[in-house]
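CO-FOLDING WORKSHEET

Operator: S.A.
Ligand of interest: nicotinamide-adenine-dinucleotide
Run index: 350
Mode: holo prediction, single chain
Checklist:
[x] sequence pasted
[x] SMILES validated
[ ] output reviewed
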Amino acid sequence: MRIGVIGAAGKIGQMRVATILAEPKAELAAVMDMSMDKARAHAHGAPAFTDLDAFLGVPMEAVVISTPAHVREPLCLAAFERGLHVLSEKPLHHTVAGSRRILAAAKAAKRHLGAGFNMRYYPAFACVKDVMESGRIGEVDHIRVYGGHEGLPKFAFDWEYKSEISGGGALWDVGIHMTDMARHLLGEITEVYGVATEKVWKVKGSEDNALAIFKSPSGIPAIYQATWTDWKGYKSAVEVYGSHGMVRGAYAPMENMLITMEKPGGATTTVRKRYLDIRIREKLRSWKTTALASFQAELDEFIALTEGRTGLRIADGHAALRAVEVAAAVAESSRTGKPVTLENLGAMVP
Ligand SMILES: NC(=O)c1ccc[n+]([C@@H]2O[C@H](COP(=O)([O-])OP(=O)(O)OC[C@H]3O[C@@H](n4cnc5c(N)ncnc54)[C@H](O)[C@@H]3O)[C@@H](O)[C@H]2O)c1
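OUTPUT RECEIVED:
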């Protein structure tokens, strides 16, 4: 598949380019960024552009859009108009309306929209999903998801935290991966009750913390927190509790814990997995090696998605939209004090 990258000079864009170069089924068709110097510096011999029409004039089947969310809509719409598939970074857009327009354009063009929820491929989180589906922890009672970091000092650009262009705070940033994780595990999120706080960083409309309960269509709850006040540093965790045990996945560091029992309250067996290979690799090289591995797996599945394969781990356009809708629903629920109901989107059919 010939793939172009928009935002190729960015922190994540450079990693997306690297994954395309390393993917046997893909070829880097072209790159685009804001200045020709930046674009050329990350083109690896592919044609480089600053003009969207000229970039899209290069023969290709798909684009990866690695820009900030607030500039994404015209880029996605133009790509779908040209009949291309799109893999977009998270969040799809900084507004619900914009996200819906992007999804509608994908459907009108009958093209696939993949969402960059690459944490689905982190081995500890993939393990949680696989254990839950295997039935080893029995009937699922509830889920806990958590994602956070220290907040504003982490950011280099205002698009990362100012609500007018970011959509909001912790929920729209690291938290959106865990919103997606909750949906990935629950199947769908159709009810949202939440409370958002703004006491620490005091950026209007950008929550420091979002505490929420999400419900699946069958009523399984997920308790959720996204935070910009985790003074311990960058952390994400997912736990699923069932009638016959629980499974936990966390990062960083990457780890799993699985507790199983033959009957509720019976003798327990505990298994822990610490991914020493990943920890050593990250120590010797960088955390980026873990992100890169997940981008590689995601790209492989994005190609498979466009080939019509099903049963994949990749987040589709409905996952992209629902994560943004849930973020907006928490803010609404926090304002009104009432839960927000959402329709069941299910899987996306282009
Ligand atoms: N999945 C993850 O783990 C993860 C991690 C961090 C960031 N992200 C997401 O990736 C996206 C990019 O983040 P980043 O940290 O790489 O940002 P960045 O600022 O480092 O890179 C963005 C790049 O896009 C370019 N750009 C901006 N507007 C453009 C336009 N209209 N046309 C072409 N190029 C344009 C910029 O010049 C820059 O090179 C964001 O949506 C962010 O939320 C994802």
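REVIEW:
Residues 2-117 form a domain with the Rossmann fold fold (CATH 3.40.50.720).
The CA atoms of residues 32 and 51 lie 7 Å apart.
[x] output reviewed
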